Amino acid sequence: MGILSKNNTNSDQDQVANFYFPTSKSALIIFTRNPELGKCKTRLAKTIGNEAALEIYKHLLKHTAETAKNVSVDRYVFYSEAIQKEDLWNPEFFKKKLQEGSNLGERMENAFSKLFQLGYEKALIIGSDLLDLNAEIISEGFQKLNQNDYVLGPAKDGGYYLFGMKQLHPKVFKNKAWGTESVRKDTLDDLQNEDIHLLEILNDIDTFEDIEGIESLKKYY
Prior knowledge:
Shape: globular
Largest sheet: 7 strands, mixed
Strand content: 15-25%
């Protein structure tokens, strides 16, 4: 099934509103941008062009989906623009929802809030632009929440690639310059009096410098 499927329907909002019964105490949130030409990996596209940037993002999406399927929790993929029914996010493994909010902080807060309202005891969010992320790291994030209230995976660019909690903490999603190198520091400042575990530092892919030397991506540009 193609990642760029056009099988969206007017009933997508019905799927967004579906009530899912938890089958686990833990939920993984995957934030993904709908893969459209000229609308994803725009910083990377400045160097290699929109077509190549789109192909690389589709490669990253496939990696993220395969990685997430190997984590034994309930999995929710949150689309940026519209839910796609026939794509790589197989409903056998992923429940589908739509991001809601005017900025990244609001969208993440709303996603966490929805899942805690469903009764999950632990929720963890990842993006879809890291080749270095694997199931072991995500599983470690959930495991560390047994002893800590929060877990964070630092990204080399000053942000984070993973964030998890056991109850909603709205402050961490507010007053941030999203997409800048200050996000991680500002988030940790919000949690300075809390129990938080830091995972290993990984590199997400945003610019050409991030993909230099990665053999699996050279075929795209």
